[in-house]
Amino acid sequence: MNHTALQPIWDWMLRNLGVGFFEFPLYFLPVVVAVVLVTGVVYSIFDVVVYQRISAKAATKLGLRIMSTYVGAAVAFFVLHRIFHPWINEVPTAAPTLIAFVTQLGCFMVIGEFLTYWWHRLEHGNRFVFQKVHYLHHRVQSPLTIWTNFVVHPVEGLMVMLCLYVPPLVFGAHPMIVVAYAVANTTAMVITHSGYDMTFYPRWLLPAASGHELHHSEKRPTNLSVVMTYGDKLFGTYKRPAAVMQS
């Protein structure tokens, strides 16, 4: 029962994306790019048309710059892989069981939060790392927009990717689980930087946008979590934002 529940979805993914897509070791990169593109367009419409937080010109310029960087990187890696074939993933024909899917997805979210939290904490705790790497992200002032999450130094971008995706790849997670994980953690980080607190968003589990606004506006490093909330609450850096207290 558990085995067959996800099989139609996995068959659809193999049929429409192709086995070659999952043979690419960094197949999660196009997934991240797709999430960024979809959420970026949707939130930018709210930023420009509904709430008029930024101009259409600014949103377009920043969005195109971010997307060209991410799309360019994904395409470059894919082309290099097609030419040199340094590492070919073995692609399973069977889907993971439902229990394995849920359990591993939850575990990787927890691990991803732990590693990204401590990397983020190092960025604020070490003057050299902050001044040479993390400063770029904090040049973006409040109010934050959907693209803020991706204004980062290349070293920071690489480190975040390593923190998030080395664990599932090392443990040999099923590609279907890695894709779901990429969608989940990218969406969480996007919403954290979006500048909008959504009414039904599980702020007890995932970081609120208002909390990260506080992180960008205060000198003392608070609300460092961007994947899940437990990092801040467990390690003493959580500060409850006013916007959440009023909701």
Percentage beta strand: under 5%
CA distance, first residue to last residue: 41 Å
Number of strands: 0
Catalogue the unreliable spans: none
Provide mean pLDDT, rounded.
90
Q: What's the helix-strand series?
A: HHHHHHHHHHHH
Helix content: 55-70%
- The whole-angstrom Rg is 19 Å
Write down the overall geometry.
globular
> Main sheet, how many strands, which sense, barrel?
none
Counting DSSP H or I runs of 4 or more residues, the number of helices is: 12
Q: Structural class of the secondary elements?
A: mainly alpha
InterPro entries: Fatty_acid_hydroxylase, Sterol_Desaturase_Related
GO molecular function: iron ion binding; oxidoreductase activity
Transmembrane segments: 27-50, 62-84, 96-119, 173-196
Domain Fatty acid hydroxylase: 108-237
Descriptive report:
α4 runs parallel beside α9 (175-192). The longest helix has 29 residues, at 56-84. The model has no long low-confidence stretch (mean pLDDT 90). The protein has 12 helices and no strands. It has helices at residues 2-5, 7-17, 19-23, 28-50, 56-84, 98-125, 127-132, 154-170, 175-192, 209-217, 230-235, 242-245. The protein is mainly alpha-helical and 247 residues long. This is Sterol desaturase family protein. GO terms for molecular function: iron ion binding; oxidoreductase activity. Its main location: membrane. One of its GO terms (cellular component) is membrane.
Topology:
Layout: H1 2-5, H2 7-17, H3 19-23, H4 28-50, H5 56-84, H6 98-125, H7 127-132, H8 154-170, H9 175-192, H10 209-217, H11 230-235, H12 242-245
